[in-house]
Amino acid sequence: MTVDSHIQSHEVENAARRRLTERGVTNRDIAEIVYMMQSPYHQSLTMEECIESVDKVLEKREIQHAILVGVELDVLAEMNMLSEPLQSLIAQDEGLFGVDETIALGAALGYGSIAVTTYGHLDKQKIGIIEKLDTKNGLRCHTFLDDIIGSIAANASSRLAHRERDRQDGMTDRDLDIRDEEDRL
Ligand SMILES: [Ca+2]
């Protein structure tokens, strides 16, 4: 195994975004959840802002890595390529198997407590695309993906809530963009 080849950030980002598309999830699907979560608190919120927030969250490495790991395991489980007992645990979405939630929750920690509580809420009240993914049809495995989508939606919700407050506090769009850059790591 070579360890000296440097993996370009944009390759990782593109791969993560492609994975979501391949699994039938669009940014708009995730943004619809964000809208449902944030519109009660944010009267003038638009779908465009929610889509932009999802897009910004997808620039974050920690999220990209969670997508790549989770979707890979879902796909391998669909192809029956994991070793037992992991194959059955993931393919059957065994109730006590919590690594899917651990990875998704870990990816929500970077956006603070609003992200964590929103993730917890979405884990219980499966809505929108999360509900669709959670409905087992016997062919597809979304054991990891449903939680990762919840995490992306939670992060995008938290980001919007914080930006709204910062804007009320008088921060300019330029200041907000700088903060986004700092949040990317
Ligand atoms: Ca799950």
UniProtKB/TrEMBL annotation:
Basic and acidic residues bias: start-end ranges: 161-185
Gene3D superfamilies linked: PgpA-like
GO biological-process terms attached to the record: lipid metabolic process
Positions of region (Disordered): 160-185
InterPro entries (alphabetical): PgpA-like_sf (IPR036681), Put_PGPase (IPR026038), YutG/PgpA (IPR007686)
Domain YutG/PgpA: 31-162
Membrane-traversing stretches: none
CDD domains: PgpA
GO function terms (MF aspect): phosphatidylglycerophosphatase activity
The name this protein goes by in its record: Phosphatidylglycerophosphatase A
Lineage: Bacteria, Bacillati, Bacillota, Bacilli, Bacillales
